[in-house]
Design brief:
Helices cover 9% and strands 47% of the residues. By secondary structure, it is mainly β. β17 and β18 form a beta hairpin.
Length: 360
């Protein structure tokens, strides 16, 4: 009997150890997984895509969390380790914080929040204003990501702030205007600022992206249809170095981790531009099934895949050939960056806009 009891406890111990090991392995796999967070602005939901499988693993329903059908989730970003992610709600005047399990952890109150940029070292989130707002505040917000407290709303010299980014070391932030060819450079340590007037006809800066070496910043011009390349080696005073004519209404840009390529959607051309930043030339223009008013862009951490959200409000993507196009889903197009070809079309909610992932 004593021998049997000993065997019994030994077997229990083995089972417990096996279960613990399996659970730990599963948790570690989850921690290593990269997710894409797709803001379905017309559905009050966020689609969560597992990059390892390119499938939707969860859908966060904001109405189930007490928000309205008009919440309008617009843009998302995530911490470097993916432990937390954040989304702006235009219709609720809030920035929400979720954990890796997509559980709501907190919120910050900001009027018509739009695009976001993260400080790479400090727990700071820089938040611009929505493009859809008629008369947004002439400022941008700084939020403590840990407490979700609004630390400051920084006044600006121009109206309709929208484009926003930080340098890789976090020492500088840049904010651009939709209404004027102006960019504010801000030293995040000393709060020194400079207002840059950009020459040319109205551009309407949609968003910015900075190269990993911190030497250049690119900007997309909605009205001008141009990509603007700035030399920011003197970060206080960016200098316009080059412009490229691209597609109609270039939207959110993203840059590869090696700094060699930039990608962005051309909303009115239903296309994606691939820019070789080493020679400042258009390397490819991608078109095809699923590209339907493309909007946001994000890259997998290995740069193998480019993810493009598509509003599809005009019914460009209509695989069923439906006559009623008012409630067609939006899409996320998955592009292989080695071949610049579309590998998959993922249907998501209505009017997907911004897409975010782990901070690069």
């Amino acid at each position: 009997m004593i021998f049997s009891i000993s065997n019994f406890f030994r077997n229990v111990a083995i089972i417990v150890l096996t279960l613990f090991t399996a659970t730990s392995a599963f948790a570690q796999a989850g921690a290593d997984t990269q997710y894409m967070y797709v803001c379905n602005q017309g559905s009050a939901t966020v689609s969560v895509i597992d990059v390892s499988t390119n499938t939707i693993t969860d859908t966060v329903d904001l109405q189930e969390l007490g928000f309205s059908a008009n919440a309008k989730p617009h843009h998302a970003v995530a911490d470097k380790d993916g432990e937390f992610w954040y989304v702006t709600l235009i219709g609720e005047n809030k920035v929400l914080k979720f954990d890796r399990n997509n559980e709501l952890q907190g919120s910050a109150e900001l009027e018509v929040p739009g695009l976001m940029a993260m400080h790479p070292e400090k727990d700071l989130l820089y938040v611009g204003r929505s493009m859809s707002a008629v008369n947004p505040p002439q400022s941008f917000g700084i939020v403590n990501r840990t407490t979700m407290e609004v630390l400051e709303e920084v006044d600006l010299f121009f109206t309709r702030p929208h484009a926003i980014t930080t340098t890789p070391n976090g020492e500088w932030a840049y904010v651009g205007s939709l209404s004027e060819n102006q960019i504010l450079s801000l030293n995040t340590e000393t709060e020194e600022t400079n207002l840059i007037n950009v020459p040319g006809s109205p551009h309407t800066f949609v968003n910015f992206a900075v190269t990993p070496d911190g030497n250049n910043m690119i900007a997309t011009g909605q009205i001008s249809g141009k990509l603007l390349i700035f030399d920011i080696r003197d970060p206080l005073s960016p200098q316009l170095a080059a412009t490229l004519d691209v597609g109609a209404q270039p939207w959110h840009p993203v840059i590869s981790s090696d700094g060699k390529h930039a990608y962005f959607a051309n909303k009115e051309d239903h296309s994606v531009s691939v820019i070789n930043l080493e020679d400042g030339a258009i390397e490819a223009t991608i078109t095809g099934n699923g590209l339907a008013q493309p909007h946001g862009a994000a890259l997998s951490q290995d740069d193998k895949y480019l993810y493009i959200t598509n509003n599809n409000l005009d019914g460009t993507y209509n695989p069923e050939g439906l006559k009623e196009t008012g409630n067609l889903p939006g899409t996320v197009v998955v592009i292989n960056t080695e071949t610049n070809t579309i590998e998959k079309v993922i249907e998501v909610g209505r009017y997907p806009s911004g897409i975010g992932t782990n901070a690069r």
